[in-house]
Amino acid sequence: MNDTTIIQRGTRVHCILAHAGEGVVTAVREDPNARNTYVIGLPGLERVRSTGQHLYDVVFLNGHFSQGVPETIFRGVQWHILERLAEEEEIARLVAAHLQLRAEDEAAAERRRFAFEVERDQLKADPANKHLTQGDDQSSGLLAAKNIRAVLRRAFPGERFSVQKRSWGTVSIQWEDGPTEEQVRGLVDRFRSGSFDGMQDQYVSEKTPWNAVFGGTKYLNLTRFHSPALITRAIAEVMAQLGDIGVGVSTAEDYAAGKLWDIEVPGAHGLESLIRMRASRLAG
């Protein structure tokens, strides 16, 4: 039906896309970018035939509107032409509903823009942030990395952190023992300017007023290492709990070299896993 039906103002359609659904064609016009088809004939008698491609405007029952849908897409698998034309009264009502929805969306966008600017200006003027550098780098990670160092120095004096700007707007934070990952993430997560949406299989930018003032990073990688001293304590406690299981004296160097990962412990996790879990508990 999609290939032969004449489409006109009032034609009812259905689109499977999430924003669409059932709708009504409000306008049909020639596609100015459509190419002509050349039909080869005898020399001097070549003919030119127009493809007859059109563009379609559609207002949907949910208030959304699609303008200039090419005919090649309109007659594709995402669209279906329905029975019975819509009356002009219904078209006018749907168009009015769309205009109302657009006005509400524009008003909401303006409120969000105003709130964004107010919060951004407050952050700039707040003396509590005077130890941070202001700028307009909202996603590369350069400014964010600089300010993350300042945040961590103030929050955890005496602790050593490695904060590095990596490729693709990534900032990597590494440290040994000390604060937990949750404590660090609670301070630095505000520098993220988006996240990966697994449902859409794409990165979604979510720049905030904080990003607009103090910088943003697309990805934050946090890695907390355990020191040899802590691993040594964990090994001693695990071995004391296990007793004699036929394993020689293990050291932090053995753990770091991966020599313990394949040592099985009867009725429990492997030895390396037990040591890692005990070290995490000791670290707090």
TrEMBL record:
Residues 7-121, 144-221 form the Large polyvalent protein associated domain. This is Large polyvalent protein associated domain-containing protein. The lineage of its organism: Bacteria, Pseudomonadati, Pseudomonadota, Alphaproteobacteria, Rhodospirillales. Pfam families: LPD29, LPD30.
